[in-house]
Design a protein that fits this description.
Strand 3 and strand 4 form a beta hairpin. The chain is built from 2 helices and 5 strands. It has 98 residues and is an alpha+beta fold. A 3-stranded mixed β-sheet has the order 4-3-5, covered by helices on one side. It is globular and about 40 Å long. 22% of the residues lie in helices and 18% in strands.
């Protein structure tokens, strides 16, 4: 997820809309579940992840790149490395009914 790059916010948003998560059950059978609510994070969501991952005990590093697409444009990560505007799709932490 975090290594995907995009040339525009539209391309990044389209990637998140089409993203497919793959799960394995306890018997190692592959189950593909298409979650329909993946989206680009907001600028504030990216900034808070970057802030908390700097505190090494808070969360694992999930945004290691130099910049990421947010719904409103590019967000720079001063501690990141590697070029390109990367995509990190997110989804809300509650279940939705279709």
């Amino acid at each position: 997820r975090s290594t995907m790059e995009a040339a525009s916010v539209e391309q990044a948003a389209s990637h998140c809309e089409q993203y497919v998560e793959v799960y394995k059950d306890p018997d190692n059978s592959t189950i593909v579940k298409h979650l329909k609510d993946w989206r680009l994070p907001t600028k504030a969501e990216i900034e808070i992840i970057i802030k908390f991952q700097k505190e090494k005990e808070a969360i694992d590093e999930v945004l290691a790149g130099e910049s990421y697409w947010a719904a409103s444009g590019i967000v720079d990560n001063s501690d990141g490395s590697g070029g390109g505007n990367r995509i990190r799709c997110v989804r809300d932490a509650f279940d939705t009914e279709d």
